[in-house]
């Protein structure tokens, strides 16, 4: 890897042939040294999208005075050599060069530094060129300009090759085999490196065993400033969170907050009295420390464990990576903390090395993930899949090498005592005062009769407004065409690998069993596709699928014509599912026979057992949903418009309608203390709705206590709430007139704010309709519009919005909470409609029916409280710090015209609002912002 050309392009878009090259840089490297460079702006002879101009800083004036690609083509000839062409995501550059130059490129190989970086540095948080430059501390930093990025790519390549050369020979041998199976051009580079390394190693120094990282000491085991004389019994939450807090020594931004102390006192009291506390803590309270500190003191004093459960990964990471280390540095006594996830989040070394032994039979995408995982195992302490950043097909491959309860050998596994990541994670949890988990694992533990989590004396549930939703999801059943196809794919690969193994003795029954299994699998695959395709067609035929929406949900047993039309295809699929599972069981009998003669077949026995178990579960779940759902369950079909693979964009669901009784019996009917906290739990300043939802009203009086902690922010000075009264309501006018009114209003408000606006929609269809109409208007005034799932996913758009200027972000459901953009980047939140749940949502509809049957009002008991909590979450996106200032504009005048609107207003931390026509509000906003 001494001679190559590095390439980088900037283009007007992302579609070769349609979009054009507007900047090009080529760097020639000979004998490992940069010897020549070529750089030029290119006139694309077309208009440049605003987002591309923002990204690159290139303006149209300088482009239109630049040469065209044809004019600079003669200067490129000195770089069109028979050497490798290197780039970061080289496939993009290659496709544009081939489309624009209309010729076959002469390079010997196309080498992608993105691919190599994912393999060699799998543990890094990101693999974009910018992220890698920061993580690896490269001298050249990419600027979305061709020459800067080409230089950064060249330096990145040298750095990565240096990292490769440090790998052990045993690792390189296997890595080279995996890359060859993955059809990666990097395989040849590794082969050359191995040959050079072999010259310096004696054969007897190469063990042949693949090394993995030795287990590291738990870095969350004890305090950084532990003192042998310290005594946690002398400490109080008032002191630890007071003006003279020890936190101020290690946290320069520490601030004493009375609200935080008030919450910590309540948590402390509930822990000692073994009560259930509902604590709503406004934004800025610092609630995580307000429960972590009293929980830690209580656990250490009582020698009992406290579980901390969060809903989102972001909060879990904040507690684990920021709050826990902060407490360890500040406190003068040792304590232990652990992060624990569900079993399938951890790699199983037995399954991984079994798969590695069959590298030659892996599909290319499987081999590439195995390559990344092999290098990762030299670095990881946790074995947690979150460190690997899996995407797409990786998730299916991961299922073949992750820990799995059905295939786990337990103490009989050779990796168990020292290297098993699941055992290590559980051991740490069992020896810690604080254990950080998520809601999903909490409810999985309940569903498994409390077998997954260590015993604990107290439980803290943060983001507690999600627990009904999470409980409903975990107690429900979901079967998708996609998941069945993934299972069939894994089963097929297992059968093929078995057919390539040589059994201990010859028997014609063995190959016949494998052949019959593969034939049955093929027939089942076809019938699964047919069933789900017919299910979708039937929904469309009977006009139950909503056109234009990303997702459609259809109640199943209410639609008799749909059930009738798919009955034959359903029965056929069920027949072949039973037949294939029977074939797998027959194969398993043979494998049991071989394992009695040859111990090496034991590994296959357990993996095959897991596949059979999954097939049996699919059979039971399909029967449950399609034939015998209990009275408390609602069943529905979910169809995703954006997923176009036949049969893989459809999901069958069964969900309990009411989980309050189960939550009461399985979670809350206990003598242990439970703290439930969130920024959004109350409706109209009371917990009645939340208490009923969770079944807490079924407990004896006095068990549950409540607390509302107001935000320390001064909302009256920091936030202006505006409600225009001249915008039509949805449904009272034509759809086109309503959309035009939204376009006009949003454009005016965003223009006056200079961008810096988050617009929250309740429907992605409405978001798209407004987006396409208003985008040309924003382009003309140099405001960059970013649309959810139109310009990227949530994380990418929030990052782009946060670092940009004059940007407006259109977000749908997932943007109403968890989006944190402090400072002047965001000064305006526009809420398009009050966030009432769609009335035809199957679960919502079934719950509403149950409420009405009991003689109550479904709107006031369900729709309104649910919408108020969602509304509070959306409102909370604006003020994230004490220096933030801005406006929330609600474009739905039901909030002032309807009697129930006052409940929305009473639930907000701001007590006054401005209403009038849009022009009046614009004038006020100009001076306010």
Structural description of this entry:
The strands form 4 sheets. The chain has a 7-stranded parallel beta sheet with strand order 8-9-7-10-15-6-16. Strands 19-20-18-21-22-17-23 form a 7-stranded parallel beta sheet, with helices on both faces. The protein is 47% helix and 13% strand. It has 929 residues and is an alpha/beta fold. The two termini are 56 Å apart. The model is unreliable at 219-230 (pLDDT under 50). α30 links the parallel β19 and β20 (807-811). The chain is globular and about 80 Å long. The chain contains 35 helices and 23 strands.
Entry keywords:
929 residues; alpha/beta; Nucleotidyltransferase, domain 5; Rossmann fold; 7-stranded parallel sheet; 35 helices
Number of DSSP-assigned strands = 23
What Rg do the Cα atoms give?
Answer: 30 Å
Total helical segments: 35
Low-confidence stretches: 219-230
Shape designation: globular
> What proportion strand?
5-15%
Estimated structural class: alpha/beta
What name does CATH use for the topology of the largest domain?
Rossmann fold
Mean pLDDT: 89
The major pleated sheet works out as: 7 strands, parallel
CATH homologous superfamily identity of the largest domain = P-loop containing nucleotide triphosphate hydrolases
State the CATH class of the largest domain: Alpha Beta
List the strand order in the largest sheet: 8-9-7-10-15-6-16
C-alpha termini separation: 56 Å
């Amino acid at each position: 890897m001494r001679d190559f050309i590095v390439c980088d392009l900037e283009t007007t878009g992302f579609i070769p042939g349609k979009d054009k090259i507007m900047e090009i840089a080529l760097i020639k490297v000979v004998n490992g040294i940069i010897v020549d460079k070529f750089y030029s702006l290119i006139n694309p002879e077309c208009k440049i999208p605003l987002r591309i101009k923002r990204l690159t800083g290139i303006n149209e004036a300088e482009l239109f005075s630049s040469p065209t690609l044809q004019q600079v083509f003669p200067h490129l000839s000195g770089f069109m050599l028979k050497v490798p062409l290197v780039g970061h995501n080289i496939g993009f550059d290659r496709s544009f060069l081939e489309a624009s130059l209309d010729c076959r490129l002469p390079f010997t190989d196309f080498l992608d530094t993105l691919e190599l970086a994912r393999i060699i540095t799998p543990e890094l948080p990101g693999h974009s060129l910018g992220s890698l430059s920061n993580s690896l501390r490269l001298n050249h930093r990419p600027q979305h300009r061709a020459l800067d990025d080409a230089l950064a790519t060249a330096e990145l390549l040298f750095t990565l090759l240096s990292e490769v050369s440090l790998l052990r020979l045993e690792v390189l041998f296997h890595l080279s085999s995996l890359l060859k199976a993955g059809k990666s051009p990097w395989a040849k580079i590794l082969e050359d490196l191995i040959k050079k390394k072999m010259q310096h190693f004696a054969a007897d120094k190469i063990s042949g065993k693949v090394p993995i990282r030795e287990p590291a000491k738990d870095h969350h085991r004890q305090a950084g400033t532990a003192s042998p004389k310290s005594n946690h019994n002398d400490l109080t939450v008032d002191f630890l969170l007071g003006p003279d807090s020890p936190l101020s020594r290690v946290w320069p931004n520490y601030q004493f907050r009375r609200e935080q102390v008030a919450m910590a006192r309540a948590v402390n009291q509930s822990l000692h009295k073994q009560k259930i506390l509902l604590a709503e803590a406004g934004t800025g309270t610092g609630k995580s420390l307000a429960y972590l500190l009293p929980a830690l003191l209580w656990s250490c004093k009582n020698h009992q464990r406290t579980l901390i459960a969060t809903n989102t990964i972001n909060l879990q990471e904040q507690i684990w990576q920021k709050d826990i280390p902060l407490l360890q540095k500040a406190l003068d006594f040792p304590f232990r903390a652990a992060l624990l996830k569900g079993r399938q989040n951890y790699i199983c070394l037995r399954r991984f090395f079994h798969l590695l032994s069959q590298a030659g039979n892996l599909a290319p995408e499987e081999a590439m993930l195995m390559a990344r995982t092999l290098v990762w195992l030299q670095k990881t302490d946790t074995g947690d899949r979150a460190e690997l950043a899996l995407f797409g097909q990786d998730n299916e491959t991961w299922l073949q090498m992750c820990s799995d309860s059905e295939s786990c050998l337990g103490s009989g596994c050779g990796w168990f005592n020292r290297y098993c990541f699941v055992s290590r994670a559980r051991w740490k949890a069992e020896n810690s005062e604080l254990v950080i988990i998520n809601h999903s694992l909490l409810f999985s533990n309940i569903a498994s009769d409390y077998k997954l989590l260590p015993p604990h004396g107290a439980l803290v549930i943060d983001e507690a407004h999600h627990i009904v939703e999470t409980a409903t999801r975990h107690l429900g059943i979901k079967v998708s065409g996609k998941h069945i196809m993934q299972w069939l794919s894994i089963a097929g690969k297992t059968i093929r690998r078995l057919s390539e193994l040589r059994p201990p003795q010859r028997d014609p029954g063995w190959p016949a069993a494998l052949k019959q299994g593969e034939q049955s699998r093929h027939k089942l695959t076809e019938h699964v596709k047919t069933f789900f395709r017919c299910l979708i067609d039937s929904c469309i035929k009977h006009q139950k699928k909503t056109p234009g929406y990303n997702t459609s949900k259809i109640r199943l047993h209410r639609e008799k014509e749909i059930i009738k039309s798919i009955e034959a295809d359903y029965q056929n699929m069920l027949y072949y599912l039973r037949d294939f599972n029977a074939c797998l069981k027959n194969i398993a009998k043979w494998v049991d026979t071989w394992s009695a003669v040859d111990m090496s077949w034991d590994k296959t026995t357990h993996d095959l057992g897991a596949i059979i178990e999954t097939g049996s579960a699919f059979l039971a779940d399909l029967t449950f949903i399609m034939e015998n759902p209990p009275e408390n369950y609602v069943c529905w079909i979910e169809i995703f418009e954006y997923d176009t693979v036949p049969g893989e964009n459809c999901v069958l669901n069964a969900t309990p309608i009411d989980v309050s009784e189960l939550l009461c019996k399985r979670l809350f009917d206990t003598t242990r203390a439970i703290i439930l906290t969130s920024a959004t739990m109350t409706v109209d300043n009371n917990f009645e709705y939340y208490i009923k939802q969770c079944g807490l009203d079924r407990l004896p009086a006095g068990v549950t206590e409540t607390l509302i902690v107001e935000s320390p922010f001064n909302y009256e000075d920091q936030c202006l709430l505006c409600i225009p009264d001249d915008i039509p309501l949805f449904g009272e006018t034509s759809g086109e007139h309503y959309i035009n009114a939204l376009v006009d209003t949003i454009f005016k408000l965003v223009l006056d704010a200079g961008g810096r606006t988050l617009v929250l929609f309740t429907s992605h269809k409405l978001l798209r309709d407004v987006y396409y109409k208003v985008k040309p208007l924003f382009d003309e005034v140099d405001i960059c519009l970013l649309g959810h799932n139109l310009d990227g996913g949530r994380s990418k758009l929030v990052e782009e919005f946060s670092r940009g200027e004059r940007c407006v972000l259109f977000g749908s459901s997932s943007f109403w909470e968890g989006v944190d953009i402090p400072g002047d980047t965001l000064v305006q939140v526009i809420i398009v409609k009050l966030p009432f749940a769609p009335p035809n949502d199957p679960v919502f509809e079934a719950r509403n029916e149950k409420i009405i049957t009991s003689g109550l009002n479904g709107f006031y008991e369900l729709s309104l409280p649910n919408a108020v909590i969602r509304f509070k979450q959306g409102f909370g996106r604006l003020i994230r710090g004490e220096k933030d200032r801005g406006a929330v504009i609600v474009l739905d005048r039901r909030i002032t015209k309807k009697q129930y609107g006052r409940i929305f207003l009473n639930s907000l931390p701001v007590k006054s609002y401005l209403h009038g026509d849009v022009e009046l509000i614009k004038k006020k906003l100009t001076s306010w912002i």
